[in-house]
Write a structure and sequence with these properties.
Layout lengths: L4 H16 L7 H28 L14 E2 L7 E3 L2 E3 L4
Antiparallel strand pairs: 1-2, 2-3
Length: 90
Amino acid sequence: MSNSIADLRKHLFDTLEALKAKDNPMELDRAKAIADVAQVVINSAKVEVDFMRMRGDGSKGTGFIPEEKEVPALPGQPRLIKGAAQSGSK
């Protein structure tokens, strides 16, 4: 099992498809458990993004969040490009 944000998205979309299956839909309790765990992972990823912004190097991924050339800024915050803060946002 891989553990990236893309993998999480795939698992969540697979869960949606399984819930919609007419012949053998996924049990609601199982789907709820998947959604709950996914929310914990998403909250962890938000902390990782905040850490990358505070560290000042938005270009390095964390393994879960892939390496990017730019980490988008929060509204009203400087954006980070290759480790340097720049004013404005996209």
